[in-house]
Write a structure and sequence with these properties.
Length: 347
Amino acid sequence: MDFRHLGSSGLYVSEIAYGNWLTHGEQIDQDAAEACVHAALDVGITTFDTADVYAQGQAETVLGRSLRGVRRESVEICTKVHGAMGDGLNNRGLSRKHVMEACHASLKRLDTEYVDLYQAHRFDGNAPLEETLIAFDDLVRQGKVLYLGVSEWTASQIADALRIAGDLGLRSRIVSNQPQYNLLWRVIEAEVLPLCEREGIGQVVFSPLAQGVLSGKYQPGSPPPEGSRAAAGGRGTNFIGRVRSDEITGRVAQLASVAADAGLTMAQLAVAWVLQNPGVSAAIIGASRPEQIKDNAGASGVKLEPAVLERIDEVLGDDLIERDPSKTAKPFAVKDSWAHPDWKRPG
């Protein structure tokens, strides 16, 4: 496993991180979760990503249990705050009250005295940004949080946060952003990445496999394979349905020869592509089985030749690649042509 600095900070993270969105506490049980966490550790992954809102706290609890017995200093635990954790108006967002209470609750569920990275899961237009940044800074001063990050913020929102933190003289600053980024979804490239590279903010990207579509497991005109996220039901099926059209899966299937020529599996090709971007500090993989982690981890340290990158773009074509920066913070909005006929918008 190769390691990279988290932005311009001194913190090293494994360039492939393990995340438990839609899996721990939702799709797999504690035993399966522990098997995946231990498989991640076995391949050298030290960075683990979760959020309080994942399975309404259960994902944090499962991760905390799975890491028991692991030396705390040997791993980096990342979690997030913003999503609704109750019915009350103060049980969500980035107000000082919710940030402080949510952090304490996360620490308890994760069974740790501190988290390495605490991230604002989304931007909150209902809370003064100054209030949020001061609350985050206080958590750092208290030793409960070591580094700060955001997730799916626009370039202008990140720039405002940096300016306000400077004006307030805060000691802690944002060092990471967690956006969706993969072969099909490149909306951060136009605005977010240039700003973050100038400001020393690293990208810890999620969904490098586009919910598994880029692994090649889904074939056009065929039902999803048994055990896959698309076949599991629940929220995972809804999310992946947005990118599981025959148009996409048919084009992705053509990447098999590109991957084979590079000596990689399709999943490794997709993850390696993300890691070619110098602005990326880590790519978060999700898995319900240990073998998936071992396969994905094979992308660490891979350098793709320019000819391979060109072939990838030729296969996918501009019609399937989303680059519109206005879709930042809308990680599951896709081009109309992407929509799978089985997908229905919740509600």
